[in-house]
Amino acid sequence: MAYLVLQEISKRFGSVQALSRVTLEVERGAVHAIVGENGAGKSTLMKILYGLEQPDSGQILLDGRRLTIASPRDAMRHGIGMVHQKFQLIPSFTVVENIVLGDEPARAGWLDRKAARRQVAELLERYGLELDPDRPVRDLSVGERQRVEIAKLLYRQAEVLIFDEATAALTPEEAEGLFRILEQFVAGGKTILYITHKFSEVFRLARHVTVLRRGRVVSSMPVAEATPERLARDIVGAGGLPDLGGPAPSSAPGLGPSTSPDPGPVILDCQGLWVVRPDGVPALRGVDLAVRGGEIVGVAGVEGNGQAELAAAVVGLTPVQAGSIRLDGVPVDGASVKERRRRGIGWIPPDRYTLGSALASSLWDNLIAGEVDLPPFSAFGVLRMQAIRRHARQRMETFDVRAPGPEVPAGSLSGGNLQKVIVAREVRDGLRLLVASNPTSGLDIRATAFVREQLLHLRNRGVAVLLISTDLDEVLQLSDRVLVLHRGEVVAQFPRGAATRETVGRAMAGSHEPLAEVSSRG
Amino acid sequence: MAEPTASPPAPSPSHWRTQLALATAWSTGVTFAGALALTALVLWLTGQPVFGTFALMLRTALGSKVGLADTLLQATPLILCGLACAVSFRAGVFNVGVEGALYLGAFAAAWTGFTFVGLGRLPLIAACLVAAAVVGALWLAVPAALKAYLDVDEVVSTLMLNYVALSVTSYLVNYPFRAPGLANSMSPAVAEQARLTRLLPPSQLNASLILALLLTLAVAWMFGRTRLGVSIRTLGNNPRFARVMGIPVPRLMVLTMLLSGAIGGLAGGSQVLGVNYRFIDGFSPGWGFDGITITLLARHNPWGILVTALVFGMLRNGGGMIQVFSKVPISIVDILQAAVILLVTAQVAVPSLRRATS
User: Fold this and answer.
1) Which domain holds residue A498?
2) How many domains would you assign to chain A?
3) ipTM of the complex
4) Residues of A in contact with B11 (CB under 8 A)
5) Domains parsed from chain B with CATH numbers
6) What is the pTM of this model?
7) For residues A41, A42, A43 and A45, what is the CA-based torsion angle, rounded to 10 degrees?
8) How far is the alpha carbon of A384 from chain B, nearest alpha carbon, in Å?
9) Contact A361/B237, CB-based, under 8 Å?
10) Contact B230 A368 (CB under 8 A)
11) Distance set, CA B220 to CA A361, A362, B83, B215, B216 (Å)
12) What is the pLDDT of residues A4-26, one digit of tens each?
């Protein structure tokens, strides 16, 4: 009998059967990977295991005992813990304080700081988690914060650890560090459930892999018997294998290694950009950057090294303290967001929920929100609903947005469909420059392939594309040139051939090697 | 995309809208039922006849032509205040200063009405209403600008300004503009020709109901069918997204608060021209605040506001009568409204809390 068994779990939300009779058998002391498209039920299943949702039927067995898990607290009591995609840490507290919070060693009702410090230090030592226990969390990198989250679970004696898209925000080096930590856990007998979209991680880490599709288990096999092709087929189903965004399927011209047509004239030209955050810390320090028409320039870097400010400065959301931004040779520094949109700047924001859409608004609202005062959408301030509806339907069809109609709220769409709505809005007539910030983060392979294909189409049409992504593979796969942003500076530039995981990864980590690969810019 | 097997069964768009409308109606209905149950509990605990009291309220409010007219009379300022709140709330600006705009607007209408007595009927009524709207809007211009350009919390500033408005108008009618020969604090009466037509005498119901209905139509059209409506919705649903879309957020915030103040001013002005014929110190029983409850309950839908205001008007009207004919004080209506507010708050707060934790 397996160590952890989820047996015949079913869960319904309204008219949607999120899980139907899902059975998962997890061995002790191994990594069990769970893959599937967005909306396949992975998260729901994990939420049930973690006590955030209750199953309609089915049971959970741990070590042969039947568990009732009514809340995350219950789950923790049984030794089941989860490392969330969004960290739940208090920035001003130290590592020790964050780890013991909620479960503090106490003496006569008072926090026993010494005992807490000692216990945490021991714990970090034992599991080889490199962390300074006394540093406040706000000073830590993303990778370090994740280690704090993991330490929180270990402190509470978790035996089963759930990881949801654990490497999404990590550099390749940090991800490798995480893998080593996980290997050590497994060797020590801990059990790991690992949700991921990345096949490389499945093959690197897991002993067993289960594929979910539309709330059902499609296949479950030892990784030794799995192949990427098999997994891809199981994930998307027999309905049709889309372009996977992997190495060049023949059906997708332009995907895979790119052979860019001759780049056109410089469209975006940034010179010496300085952006200082409200807290006084410079986020961009003299960034020079040019993007030509028919060219994808990729900006790689670890999250928080100025990517957000770069995008915000170009689209006009953030004032620039020094330097200039030109579009087609004309300065746009003083121009508002609206004026820049009119001049042909589009943006796929890094977060489709908080920046890219209004979830409570209809799809047509979302599709025209920035252009509502242009013909044909309105005349003399009054909407022309027929034209709007026609436009919305046509965009939805062109960009394969699957929704009942343009009236439904954007929040009712899956992540992939919502991203298509955003792409459909931004890819409009007269587009000169598209800034794409993490355009595929959290998307399943089908939607990822779609979005990447759109970027390549735009490039081939002569649009300038500035791809700012923390997904290194994405940058390498799509870009004609790669820049690396580190602490607000462009620390390295690579022409297509010279950009590899190793060279770019080293620059992302801020290694101070001479910039051997620097090519002539522009 | 040709993949019929993979796409989920798609309900038709109209089906969606019906579902949404039903859900709103259902939750509003549940809220009212809960409030009634709580009120019944209070009546029962204090030894008063539960059904007798409710029946008397209903009979008073709807049982006769005059009763019905009085219900509409009570509903009129509530409709206007509900709309006033809705215009800014829909844009995510929690302007609670409609009560203040209502007082200032009422005074502006009264002053115009007793000062320009030489004007003809329509010009004078128009001048009074314009004065009410403009003064109401100007009253909220300062907190609007503070909110939009300096991020000063609008809830605090507008709430405080309500008391300033009450005091300022009180001073005006107690000193400079006090009606000669009257003991109470009120302004002189407006000219005869400034008074709005009574629709169903002996009820005081007057033409301002028509103004309220027209404004309901106008706001509904503005929300649903204009550029401004799209921008307001977008801002209200996600301000960060609105900025990304290039919507001039500060300007729009100011505009919605000005509109809100203008409608609030009209609510006050119409009360002067239609019912009291003068400015009376402290004349509002809190319509500007009831407007907040009403628009929250109706989720800022103008037609929902109309219906909700009618129900509230019914309660006010019926409540006034039970005080006369039974031992139950009119406070029971306040209890009922308070229960509604509590339940609305729970409805608004709980789902967002739940979303935050999951």
Assistant:
1) 266-521
2) 2
3) 0.82
4) 404
5) 53-346 (1.10.3470)
6) 0.74
7) 80
8) 8
9) yes
10) yes
11) 16, 17, 9, 8, 6
12) 999 999 998 777 788 999 999 99
